[in-house]
Write a structure and sequence with these properties.
822 residues, alpha+beta, 23 helices, elongated
Length: 822
């Protein structure tokens, strides 16, 4: 321990004598460390930390899938819940839930809250407890019991001021009263990424019991329910999936009309953590790899600094050897210095990581899961410490071994001579320096190519037409529920008055509404059959997206009318049923015919629904994301298919955000108890749909820019150092007749040889590694030639400038002064 202390004290004295070197090395490693610690904090919070529930590794979520019908994730019916509960032996417990958003009225201001109806065992299955009052009782799973509710801690604090006397009070959800029997703890959370309910509630603010009647066992309609399960101890996911396949095979056999052979019905089982993480895993791992590249470049920079400094200390190292220090002792001293630099850099990097975390939170898309779990904890600090030690060894070992091989006689003879092997322009350590610069250039090229591909992909995505015009459009949500809207006539009358008053607002061009707003994670689909169309054997229906529209929705969104007409005020409940379809549906169902006048039925062949007539064809809309195509889609008039919940859209000639106050005022004049929610522009919704791609692209571009700066600085520093050490050699060349241009050309040529070697290796590395980001790209291949060429030329230009500046300085050397100093 004593010798280690001496090594540390000597390292401190050495850094204090040359603070510029220490600061440069610490800042370089701090940048690389800060980026890595920040990204690891995100990965730790999202991918590594277990979910805050009891036995999280045994919790799973189930999905209803029919690949043949293009259904990869669907919800369940109550009958399917009982099929699983009573037929699967691998689960310790199975719970059912259905959620959405409901109007909360009663005490206080009316608001729209996320509600989830759950079976009584769901909360106990995940280990929840009540902070106040009680949880649900098993008997509340059946009809005939008083309606009760649990409040989230946030709702309790916000609406009731954390009053413990809230128990026994009544809240009203969509016009129905519920008695408050408990409050959940502040640590409890059941967000959308854990329980992705059909209604799209982002967070569960109120929980109520899901009371099922005896008909629920056989009810296979309304596949709107989530199912969570807890595996028995010792039961693997593979075993549970195998048993589930047996259940779905039996269902396909027993109910071929509901689950046709072409659908391929299966019930998927997904670990709950995997469900929560979703598709963020690959982008995060790509970013972590990119951060590692930045750290390697920083290490190469510091290694070059250490090598240059160690070569300059050759006389000191020789003297230590003469006095009896063995090679291992010298290596240990040099490694102690490098590890000390790395630890200091790691400490500064941890501070930078805290700032980077703020940037990441600012850049993050709204749908990044588990944001509350992302912070710098002891796991992250341990990672930072171990990474600092590894980095110190990584960038310190090679220079230490290289310099510790001393030739005592040669070094002592050349004492004080700058033209020695250690001081020549391409003298001792040149191979190591060249290798480090080549590595920096190669790593930078890989990052720059990746960033370039993502930039081009993002630019390509932004040119995709969503099928509507998002500019100058305000959107908001309203739901007409409660005693005032028991009659559907009242619902339609309220919306009719709303469209009229909105259209009379100054500057408003058109207004309307739709049940599923594009690019907003809203969707609904159902089976349809086509009159006169014979389906292939084993196929009972076609799946199509279904959307109800009101007012002048198509005009407000500027969705083009391809043929026929839009809905009019004459399309009412007593008139013949009509439908507008998109041109994709028209091409799929009637590829060589005029779809106008054709008739379809909502439902399967056995459905009692009336036939509806196609009266219009509109353009196809990007419903889910800009980089995916939606199913065939149809639109139904709200006046014939009354719905309570609508996403209102208002197109105005002015700034839509300015219009929001007037629009909300009109809604409240119609009904003061009607909550208005999700108020934002359509342009903002489009931007949110790109947020996750923007997040990955921005971070990778930042990493690439940092790597480019580090590589350029590293190249410049090494070239400047070699030129300064090789001044005598340059003076001799000039004295022997070399022109300034010859000196400039010689140094630039040698520097560019190193750069081009790094570019060549980097191109191979980029070709091999950019396939990892294929899923993040749109409209461009990972091997896009233009990106590779542009990035290579850009990096070569930057490296040329980093080499040219010290080369130009070298060309100005006065040979007389240089030789006199020698």
């Amino acid at each position: 321990m004593g010798t280690i202390g001496q090594d540390l004290w000597f390292a401190w004295r050495a850094f204090r004598k040359n603070p510029g070197f220490g600061i440069a090395a610490i800042l370089s490693i701090a940048i690389g460390m800060g980026i890595n610690v920040a990204i690891f904090s995100v990965i730790n919070g999202l991918l590594l930390k277990p979910l805050p529930y009891q036995d999280p590794e045994r919790l799973v979520i189930l999905w209803n899938r029919s690949p043949g019908l293009n259904i990869t994730e669907d919800w369940f019916s109550t009958a399917q819940y009982f099929d699983i509960k009573n037929g699967h032996s691998g689960f310790e417990q199975v719970a059912i839930a259905i959620g959405g958003n409901e109007n909360l009225t009663g005490e206080g201001k009316p608001e729209r809250v996320g509600t989830i109806h759950v079976s009584s065992n769901l909360l106990t299955m995940i280990g929840a407890h009540a902070a106040l009052g009680r949880l649900f009782l098993p008997e509340e799973d059946s009809l005939g019991h008083p309606a009760t509710a649990l409040l989230s801690y946030g709702t309790w604090a916000r609406r009731y001021g954390s009053d413990s006397r809230v128990l026994g009070k009544t809240i009203v959800l969509d016009g129905k009263p519920y008695e408050i029997v408990g409050v959940l703890p502040q640590s409890f959370s059941l967000p959308r990424e854990v329980l992705p309910t059909l209604g799209g509630a982002e967070q569960s603010e109120v929980l109520v019991p899901l009371a099922l009647g005896p008909e629920a066992v056989s009810n296979r309609d309304h596949e709107d329910y989530n199912i969570l399960g807890k595996l028995k101890r010792g039961v693997s996911i593979e075993q549970a999936r195998a048993e589930m396949d047996t259940i779905t095979a039996r269902l396909r056999h027993d109910h071929p009309d509901l689950y046709p052979p072409n659908g391929g019905l299966t019930f998927g089982i997904v670990p709950l953590l995997e469900q929560v993480v979703g598709d963020t895993r690959r982008p995060l791992l790509v970013l972590f790899g990119a951060a590692g590249f930045v750290l390697l470049i920083a290490c190469a920079n510091v290694a070059n600094l250490l090598l240059s400094r160690a070569v300059a200390r050759q006389q000191e190292i020789t003297l230590r050897s003469v006095l009896g220090a063995g090679r291992s002792r010298i290596v240990r001293q040099l490694l102690t210095e490098s590890v000390a630099l790395a630890v200091c850099g790691g400490a500064v990097g941890a501070a930078l990581a805290a700032l980077a975390m703020a940037v990441i939170r600012w850049l993050r898309p709204a749908n990044v899961p588990r944001v509350q779990d992302i912070h710098i904890d002891w796991h992250v600090l341990l990672f930072a410490f171990l990474l600092a030690l590894l980095s110190g060894l990584l960038f310190g070992l090679a220079p230490a071994l290289r310099v510790s091989r001393v030739d005592l006689n040669a070094t002592l003879k050349s004492s004080g001579r700058s033209a020695s092997e250690a001081g020549a322009l391409w003298g001792r350590g040149r191979s190591m320096r060249k290798l480090l610069i080549v590595s920096e250039v190669a790593l930078s090229l890989v990052l720059l190519v990746g960033a370039g591909l993502l930039l081009r992909s993002f630019a390509s995505l932004q040119t995709v037409s969503p099928g509507f015009n998002a500019d100058h459009v305000l959107t908001l949500g309203i739901t007409t529920t409660g005693p005032r809207y028991k009659d559907r006539k009242q619902v339609l009358e309220t919306y009719h008055r709303l469209w009229e008053q909105l259209n009379h607002l100054p500057g408003v061009i058109a207004s309307g509404g739709i049940t599923s707003l594009p690019l907003s994670q809203m969707f609904a689909w159902g089976p349809i059959t086509v009159e006169g169309k014979v389906l292939p054997p084993g196929e009972n229906f076609i799946n199509a997206d279904e959307r109800m529209v009101g007012g002048r929705y198509f005009e407000a969104m500027q969705i083009p009318l391809v043929s026929g007409r839009l809905f009019t005020e004459q399309d009412i409940a007593t008139s013949p049923k009509v439908v507008v379809i998109d041109d994709y549906m028209a091409g799929q169902l009637w590829p060589h015919e005029d779809p106008l006048g054709k008739r379809i039925k909502l439902g399967s062949l056995t459905s009692d629904e009336p036939l509806v007539t196609v009266v219009g064809v509109v353009g196809r809309v990007k419903q889910y994301t800009l980089d995916t195509d939606s199913r065939i889609a149809l639109y139904l008039p709200q006046t014939q298919y009354p719905v309570r919940e609508m996403n209102v859209v208002v197109r105005s000639s002015a700034d839509p955000a300015v219009e929001s106050a007037s629009v909300i005022q009109i809604v409240h004049e119609l009904d003061p108890d009607l909550p208005v929610y999700s108020v934002r522009t359509m342009r903002a919704r489009v931007a949110e749909s790109l947020a996750r791609r923007r997040f990955s692209m921005t971070l990778l571009v930042i990493f690439a820019a940092i790597s480019l700066v580090l590589a350029a600085l590293g190249t410049y520093a090494v070239m400047a150092y070699l030129v300064s050490q090789g001044t005598p050699e340059i003076g001799i060349r000039v004295a022997l007749g070399a022109t300034r241009f010859d000196i400039l050309q010689m140094i630039v040529k040698r520097g560019m040889q190193i750069t081009l070697t790094g570019v060549g290796i980097g191109l191979v590395g980029a070709f091999l590694l950019t396939g990892l980001i294929r899923s993040l790209l749109f409209g461009i291949l990972p091997t896009d030639p233009a990106t590779y060429v542009v990035v290579s030329l850009f990096l070569i230009t930057v490296s040329f400038l980093a080499t040219y500046v010290p080369a130009r300085r070298a060309a100005q050397v006065d040979p007389v002064t240089s030789l006199r100093n020698e």
